[in-house]
Every structure is written in C-alpha cells, then in structure tokens.
Amino acid sequence: MSKLRLAIVGAGPAGIYAADILLKAERDFDVSIDLFESLPAPYGLVRYGVAPDHPRIKGIINALRDVLDRGDIRIFGNVHFGTDITLDDLKKHYNAVIFATGGQRDASLDIPGIDAAGSYGAADFVSWYDGHPDVPREWPLDASSVAVIGNGNVALDVARVLAKHADDMHVTEIPDNVYAGLKASPITDVHVFGRRGPTAVKFTPLELRELGELNDVDMVVYDEDFDYDEAAEAAVKSNKQIMVMDRVLQSWRQRPGVNNAGGEASRRLHLHFYAKPHEVLSDENGRVRALVVERTASDGSGGVVETGEYREVPVQALYRAIGYFGSPLSEIPFDERRGVIPNREGQAIDPASGEQIPGIYATGWIKRGPIGLIGHTKSDAMETITHVIADQATWWQPEDPSEEAMPALLAERDVQWTDLEGWHLLDAHEIALGQDAGRARVKVVPRDEMVKISRAEG
In terms of Cα–Cα distance, which of 186, 126, 184 is closest to 160? Predict the structure, then answer.
C-alpha cells in the first residue's frame, strides 16, 4: 500500500476535522497529513472568533486538542500560504491540498455613509477582543450609544461584550489590553437592529438567554415588534428553538425598561426588530452621529416588506455584523461575490470551464460561506473527504513527498514555524499566567512573543 501525502491549509475546526475524518476513514492507501496555519496557535475561530465569556462553546477545543494530541498529524504554525509556501511548493511535496481557511473579513453593507469614522466591521472588533495578534492592540471605545447591525450570534456577541461590565469578564481569558479598554468605555446604550421579526432571527436560545443575565444591564424590547401574524405564530408553535426564544423575549417585555420606560441599570441593551439599515449620518467631523432605519413589516410568509417609514437613532459608533467573508488565496480560483473557492461538494472547479481542478479541495466556510455553527463543519468536512478519497487517481505526483522536505524548505527560507510541541508550550504558559491572576488563562497577544514561547527561545 503506497504512502500518500496530504496538505491542509488552515488549522481551525474545518481543517482539523478534515484531517481526523480522513485518517479514520476506510481507504485503500496510507496517508500522512501536514496542517499549515498562518497563526502561531491552532483552532482558528474557536480561539479568535468566540467571545472570551463563552467557555461552554469553547469546550469544542477539547475535542480538537484530542485529535492533534494523537500525534498522527503534523502542524506547521506561523506559516503563510502564498508567501512562506506556494502552490508550487505543495505540488512538489504533496499529492493534494485541502483549503480550510475560513472567512476572516466582514461582509460589506452597501448603504450611504457606512464608511464614516466610527463605523466598524464586527470581525475586526471580535479579533481585537479575542487577542488576535494581527490587529491593533487599542480599540476606540469612546461612544456612549452604539448600533450593532445584524441578528446572528456574532451580532449578539458584539452587543454583549460592549454592554457587559469589564469586571464581569475579568475572570475569563480576556487579554489585559482588552479589559482595560472595556473598563474605560463610557457606553450606556447598545442598539441591535435586525430587518426581520423576532421569530426569524439567526441567533440561538443560548446566546439570547445570556443577554438577560448580564449584571446591571437592562434588556429593552419594543411592544410594536410583537404583533405577530399567522406566519409568526405558526413558527413559534412549530419550532422548539423559536418557541424558547419567544418565551425569553416575552419575559423581557414584563421587565422595567421596556419601550424606554426606564429601568434601574446603568446600561441598556435594546433589540430592534423590523428595522432595516438605510443610512449612516455623520457630524461635521465625518463621525457617526446616527443610524437611519426603515421600518419593515411581515409579508405573511416569513419575509418582510418595506414600509417607507424611517426612524433616526442617535449613535456615535456602529458595528456591522452581517456575516463573515472569505479572502482570496494565491493562485486559487475565488468567487468574489460569495467569498469562497468555487467548488462542487468540496472539489475545486475552474469557474471558466466548470471542470474539476485536480488535487485542490475546500472545506468549511471557504467552501460554503459562513453558514451554520461549528458543529456543521464536521459533516461538511465528511463530504469533502469522500471526494478526496475517491479522487486518488487524479492526485498530483510530487517530486519529493518525503516528510523531511517541508521542514527543510521552511528552514531554508528562515520561516519561524511553530509545531504541536510549541503549541503545548504556549498553552501551558497562558494557563500559568491565568493561574497567577486567578483566571482561566491570559492570552499572549503579540505574534513575536507567541512564536518565541512556542519555539522555547528565551
């Protein structure tokens, strides 16, 4: 049985699941897998895209750690595809490659004024509060009233982090610079806007329920959003998840603070439904001063129609959280409209001819877009791996498939890569920092420091 070599670019859940599924699958060939990651640490959006006060969701790291710790997958961290290694390098040393690079950018929102100062993409803010090494250490938190556009889990994460008191997050792995920034924030009101009604939101009951548990934060909902039509009532009755969220929202309607009646908390988190962003207004200095939304109405079948009624909500900052978007990869076809690698069930295709491109595959968000929760990534990877196994006859024939070739190439190019042992060193270092401070962990943020610790260099 011949030994084949597979490269996976991206060490988040999508890449790790793909490696695990392939190694466990019944197949007529032996395979060794190298996992490449641009960051010095693995786990992708689980480490850098989930809010630090979500330890239950981060529990998925345990499963990913178990896969890596088996020792049958090599990992090369701090290695950038397109610069440190190229497609030609992969073809020279591997039989095929799976891209699992996810989506790191914010989807765009095409409304007037969206580029005003104080208007941000949620993905950048999430990267900041999660201690991503490639974003600035400081974030401008100088607004007392903030708008968050979107009705998904990321929108609620952003709203919760903005509204939550910093001291209530200090026990988590929140980086010290993030804690200091949030601690100094003058925020009093966070407004979340969604263009559909309460029964058509994209977040989960867990995310919603957590908002109501925030210390010294009043939840504000508006009675006008709960005049349900038959379609909304049917959704509540037929879908358990919607039923649970409706119960939570209805309970908030009974609290002080509903419809701006005024609660006793020092901060308020407002949920506005049937509110379609229309325009961002700026002051004389070009900074955000208000968001104009158009009131929408149910169309009777789960969608909405525009009403022509506009409302102006004073805010000094705005975050758009309407989805993540993939980034192009060097020499790999890219769908600019959808932000994905053009593919057929994970097999990369030439967009001009529609033909499969031998040896190139995709999985995760770079394959399907930012749809579904982390758990959906496993079934998505299974679909891709089914084709990987079936396509063996069309794989590349590498010039040098030896396992020694890639470390030698990276060393020759003076790439300071990190490996699994290095991740264990960094992981232990962060946990130790946390123990000293009575916290879960304290993340190391600067990339050079992460690399130095991982490589045991001083």
Answer: 126
Name the phi and psi angles at 32, rounded to 5.
-120, 145
3-state SS assignment for residue 450: helix
The strand ranges marked E within 41-131 are 73-77, 96-99, 105-106, 119-121
- pLDDT, tens digit only, all 458 positions of the chain: 457 999 999 999 999 999 999 999 988 889 999 999 999 999 998 899 888 887 666 678 888 999 999 989 999 999 999 999 999 999 999 999 999 998 777 778 889 999 999 999 999 999 999 999 999 899 999 999 999 999 888 899 999 999 999 999 988 888 889 999 999 999 999 999 999 999 988 888 888 988 889 999 999 999 999 999 888 999 899 999 999 999 999 999 887 655 655 678 999 999 999 999 999 999 999 999 999 999 999 988 878 999 999 999 999 999 999 887 788 899 999 998 888 999 999 999 999 999 999 999 999 989 988 776 666 788 889 999 999 999 998 999 999 999 999 999 999 999 999 999 999 999 999 999 998 788 888 899 999 999 999 999 86
Which phi and psi angles does 225 have, rounded to 5°?
Answer: -85, -5
Name the strand (E) or helix (H) holding 268: strand 267-272
DSSP string, 8-66: EE--SHHHHHHHHHHHHS--SSEEEEEEEESSSSS-THHHHSS-TT-HHHHTHHHHHHH
Q: Crossing angle, helix 13-24 and helix 376-390, to 10 degrees?
A: 50
CA distances from 310 to 198, 267, 275, 292, 307 (A): 19, 26, 9, 7, 8
Distances in whole angstroms, Cα of residue 180 to Cα of each of 118, 138, 174: 20, 10, 10
* Residue 316 amino acid letter: Q
Handedness of CA 371, 381, 345, 121 (dihedral sign): positive
What residue ranges define each of the domains in the chain, with the CATH number in brackets? 3-104+326-417 (3.40.50.720), 106-320 (3.50.50.60)
Helix/strand/coil for 331: coil
Ramachandran angles phi, psi of 175, nearest 5°: -60, 150
Q: Is 213 exposed, middle or buried (0-12, 13-18, 19+ CB in 10 A)?
A: exposed
| Residue 156 CB-half CA count within 13 A | 20
Under a CB-based contact definition with an 8 Å cutoff, are residues 310 and 295 in contact? yes
**434: its two tokens:** 């946390």
Tokens standing for residue 37:
């990651």
Q: Is the pTM of this model over 0.85?
A: yes
